[in-house]
Design a protein that fits this description.
single chain, about 25% strand
Amino acid sequence: MSSPSSHQESTAQESTERTVRGVVFRSPGQKVTVADVTLAPPGPEEVEVAVTAAGVCHSDLHVIRGEWDHPVPVVLGHEGSGVVTAVGEGVTGLAPGDHVVLSWVPSCGTCRFCVSGRPAACSLVAEVVAPGGVLHDGTSRLSVDGEPAHHYLGVSSFAERVVVPASGAVKVREDAPLDVIALVGCAIATGVGAVRNTAGVEAGATVAVIGCGGVGLSCVQGARLAKAGRIVAVDVVPEKLELARALGATDAVDARDGDVVKALRALVPEGLDYVFDAIGKIETTEQSIAALGQGGAAVIVGLPPAGRTARFDPLALAEADQRILGSNYGSVDAARDIPALVDLVVSGDLDVESMISARRPLDEVGDALADLAAGHALRQLLMMKKKKKEDRT
């Protein structure tokens, strides 16, 4: 518990710029580097968070490969958890010492999507925060070598400390292990949310999940929690298929063995009610649509490189009353869904620990990204160094 004096020292008014270590990406073709990053104190409606752990996700790879356009230099990372260390003016729901999960859709609460109950589609995030690499006011709290740097998806969790909009730091129960629940901020929320919020999978439904990385395994667990009647996992890595079975899949298809659609229809001849594409390659998107049954829905969860297009037969889609659904961030309401998902982790209903393939220091970010790109890893965590005693709250 914080002392009154340490609380006072953690207010934004008394905060100054600090230097933290963070993962910086400067331009396509260059490797990421761990560098000193200057972090300004939180402004109005913002909070500073000491990061405990950050998950390594394919979205970071898309930027590094130049497949997604993003302003540079940028401090990467968008999945993580930590402890609030300072709050800006006007913040009422958070205080130093609170445990939080970071959300990469820090919704504004006032646009038409937020007001209508769809904060995952927040206009301010979609039009300003994400493409601009900035916070709500259109500016950055980061600089590198004396020059302004950009935030990644309003988070930049590959750093020892971050400043984020208050809505991007979701308070959670303090008995939840902070390193484990880091994954709730992206993989778990995206996968489980796609099942619950985007698709609304019913008890007894037939489900397939193509791709058993962090998001795909979260889809599998979401389908199990929804009491789906059959859950078919599809991947090219036998170990991932084995883990998918342990997490709730009833069947497994090794995509190396041939035609995935034929294999799925051999298991469910009438076609599936729901197919989740948790990879985002064009072929997996097309497989998701082709494997549907009457009235089925293909849910596109994985994100492809920009500019790619998929093919499908619109007549067949219409005649079978089928749907193609895009799922951004599992259609979550972060303030509502993240604490509920953390509750499921603590109760044991969501197994997150099994999805963590490695815990690595920040300096090993290059190796972590290489392992992810090679398909060797599930979710890897970058663990931040422990703060000095006098720097804790």
